[in-house]
Amino acid sequence: MNADELQKILEDHALWLEGKGGAQADLSGADLSRASLSRASLSRASLSEASLDGADLRYASLDGAKLEMADLEGADLEGADMRGADLRLANLNGADLRWANLRWANLRIADLRGADLRGADLRWANLRNANLLGALLNSHTVGDGQIVTWTSTYWATSTRDERGVRWLQYGCVALPLSEWRERAKELAEIHEPQKAAYYEAETLALVALCEALDEEAQR
Q1: 27 and 88 together in one domain
Q2: Domain span at 161
Q3: Model-level pTM greater than 0.85?
Q4: Backbone φ and ψ of 111, nearest 5°
Q5: pLDDT per residue over 54-106, tens digit each?
Q6: From CA 88, how far away is CA 107, in angstroms rounded?
Q7: 71 contacts 89 by C-beta, under 8 angstroms
Q8: C-alpha distances out from residue 65 to 21, 46, 204, Å
Q9: Domain match, 71 and 148 both
Q10: Which of 195, 203, 137, 148 shows the shortest CA–CA distance to 173?
Q11: DSSP bridge pairs for 161
């Protein structure tokens, strides 16, 4: 696909998003390796199985986009809006996802090895069976069964004890991971009553990361 063809698809998609005709972008399977798509408007576009390795997608709008099985290895997605994007089985190995908005994104079985997720918003994201080995989370590395990171509220650390049970210490509270999931709302209302919903969401995002790490270790 040449630059003119891509530009025409993007223009038509912008019109479609505005309800002014045009056409929804279907770039499924397209070769967009190293494409310059910074700040591109691709909300709800179909990019399944597209080759986007090394692409410049900084601050692009990809909310609701279909990116399952897309190749985003080494892509620059800094600040990208990826809320609710479908990234199942996507290759994000080494991708730059700093400050990306990944709320509600489906990252099930995604390859996030070595990805830079510092500052990324992972609240309500599905990270089930994602590979997070070597991923960077707020300046700290995930690996060797341990997580050391921070949220906008507290530092968090997670390790497994001698029985193999994973514990999460978030702020001054340390509990087995299973209890955090069950009691997230209760603990949020106790420790951060003024912003309980936010604290609960951050807690559940940490739990999801820990679960994804453990699932990877078991494979």
Answers
A1: yes
A2: 143-219
A3: no
A4: -95, 105
A5: 999 999 999 999 999 999 999 999 999 999 999 999 999 999 999 999 988 99
A6: 5
A7: no
A8: 19, 6, 24
A9: no
A10: 203
A11: none
Determine the 3-state secondary structure of 83 from DSSP.
Answer: coil
Residue reference for tokens 């999801």: 208
Same domain, residue pair 36 and 105: yes
User: Does 183 lie in the same domain as 130?
Assistant: no
Tell which of 103, 134, 165 closes a domain: 134
If you count DSSP H runs as helices and E runs as strands, how many of each does the chain have, helices first? 3, 6
What's the structural domain count of the chain?
Answer: 2
Looking at this protein, which amino acid is placed at residue 172?
Answer: C
User: What is the sign, positive or negative, of the torsion defined by CA atoms of 61, 12, 56, 30?
Assistant: positive
The domain boundary residue, chosen from 84, 113, 134: 134
Same domain, 183 and 126: no
